Amino acid sequence: MADAAPRLQGLFAQVLGAPLPVRIRAWDGSQAGPPGAPILVVRNRRALRRLLWKPGELGLARAWVAGDLDIEGDLYATLDLLAGLIWERGEDARTLAQALRDPEVRAAVRGLVRLAGPPLPPAPPREEARSPRRHLHTKRTDRRAISHHYDVGNDFYEIVLGPSMVYSCAYWPAPDSTLEQAQRDKLELVCRKLGLKPGQRLLDVGCGWGSLAIHAAREHGVSVVGVTLSQEQAAYARKRVADEGLTDKVEIRVQDYRDVRDGPYDAVSSIGMAEHVGADRYLEYAADLYDLLEPGGRLLNHQIARRPQRDETAYHVDSFIDSYVFPDGELQPIGITVTQLERAGFEVRDVESIREHYALTLRQWVARLEADWQRAVRLTSPGRARVWRLYMAASALAFEHNRIGVNQVLAVRTPESGASGMPLRARTWGAPAGG
After folding, report:
1. What integer is the mean pLDDT of 349-363?
2. Which range has the worst mean pLDDT, 58-67, 140-149, 308-317, 341-350?
3. How do beta strands 293-306 and 265-271 pair?
4. Cα–Cα distances in Å, from 330 out to 50, 167, 305, 384, 395?
5. Burial of 7 per CB tally in 10 Å (0-12, 13-18, 19+)
6. Residue 366: pLDDT above 70?
7. What pLDDT does residue 139 have?
């Protein structure tokens, strides 16, 4: 008798304390759950074993990456339905230990164990990072973490990012603008906030595939040093620089920002890089960038932020993101970022939240990945493509629902005279290049 799906619906409802808001289709062909709802496909018993051995997000992530779980229907709608039940139950939600005090829950778990089959733990998918967490954010561990995320093939990133090859939040003039236009507007906004002028020197920390360095040199006449820890990014960026005829203006290095010694610079950009720094190293990061600037020089720090918690010591890194996307990455509230920059000596002059812009950007990246799915799988692996699809879709929803944000913080190494060099009405940011 094909009855795995109704049994799973009942067992999950007992364990989670609420019915699943999606249908289940199990490996035996059975289905159960709300009619017309998105379908959670449980392809095999191994998915259950993953959840039993690693209850919660990591077990779900392993089952998704391995292809043991899938979703039929609207991915965003499904994640929204599941989020409150599984991922966002809040500080007052029952922990697994508390839930297991309930005899009915214990009986449900025993039922899942019987349904799951042989109790041996499945091996984690090969896409899972295995980064020891006792030596966070040394130069060696940072190189390994960056390589895990970025050295997966430039061709793959071309599919996701498009011709701009910018892997950070775009700046949308309108929701129906093209991704390429929105990314160009973001690059231009950064340059204008930094007040770049011909002949100045810009340090681009975490330069990615060289897009900002090329734009700043070509449109604003500055000399740029871009640093990255990714060998693949650097090779790609150097070719782009050469193709643009900008080798006299742009130098791309494989170098840790902590090893840059050829300051001072007139401006420093750090776009989507500071999330990799780590809370314990953040003041050091801010101080290093401060020391690399001329008096009066500007820093533009573009960084994802999380919401503050009532108990900040309870913050923990998201296990799916840590294991599959950004090993050792950490988010902090915008208030802490501003405070750390000020402690390092900066005068913070402007903070702009562009949270909704990242949701639009991520939805575009997901659409590009889905439109060229088979090629993306061939260029990486089925598991890697599934990682990117899930994390970008879930992140889009997180930005839309204000669970995370992204901010551009403009700070100045203001000299002792107090002359910051900032215009009285900075938000105009001057005229666009060529305007």
Report:
1. 98
2. 140-149
3. parallel
4. 26, 17, 9, 21, 15
5. middle
6. yes
7. 65
Length of the chain: 435
Q: What is the pLDDT of residue 129?
A: 81
**pLDDT at residue 211 tops 50:** yes
pLDDT at position 181 is 97
- Type of residue found at 265: Y
Q: Which of 18-32, 93-107, 237-251, 379-393 has the lowest mean pLDDT?
A: 93-107
Alpha carbons 276 and 290: distance in angstroms, whole number: 18
What's the CA gap between 294 and 279, in Å, rounded?
Answer: 26
Is 0.85 topped by the overall pTM?
A: yes
Gap between the Cα atoms of 402 and 306, Å rounded: 9
Partnered with residue 42 across adjacent β-strands are: 69
Backbone angles phi, psi at 413, to 5 degrees: -85, 80
pLDDT score, position 94: 44
| Mean pLDDT, residues 182-187 | 98
Whether the link from the prior residue into 264 is cis, omega within 30° of 0, is: yes
Q: In angstroms, how far apart are the furthest CA atoms of the chain?
A: 82
- pLDDT band, very low/low/confident/very high, at 216 (cuts 50, 70, 90): very high
What amino acid is encoded at 66 in this protein?
Answer: A
Q: Does 206 have pLDDT greater than 60?
A: yes
SS (H, E, C) the chain: CCCHHHHHHHHHHHHHCCCCCCEEECCCCCEECCCCCCEEEECCCHHHHHHHHCCCHHHHHHHHHHCCEEEECCHHHHHHHHHHHHHCCCCCCCCHHHHCCCHHHHHHHHHHHHHHCCCCCCCCCCCCCCCCCCCCCCHHHHHHHHHHHHCCCHHHHHHHHCCCCCCCCCCCCCCCCCHHHHHHHHHHHHHHHHCCCCCCEEEEECCCCCHHHHHHHHHHCCEEEEEECCHHHHHHHHHHHHHCCCCCCEEEEECCHHHCCCCCEEEEEEECCHHHCCHHHHHHHHHHHHHCEEEEEEEEEEEEEECCCCCHHHCCCCHHHHHHHCCCCCCECHHHHHHHHHHCCCEEEEEEECHHHHHHHHHHHHHHHHHCHHHHHHHCCHHHHHHHHHHHHHHHHHHHCCCEEEEEEEEECCCCCCCCCCCCCHHHCCCCCCC
The whole-number average pLDDT for the span 72-82 is 93
- Whether residue 151 contacts residue 231, with contact meaning beta carbons closer than 8 Å, is answered with yes
Mean pLDDT computed over 146-172: 85
Cβ pair 301, 346 in contact under 8 A? no
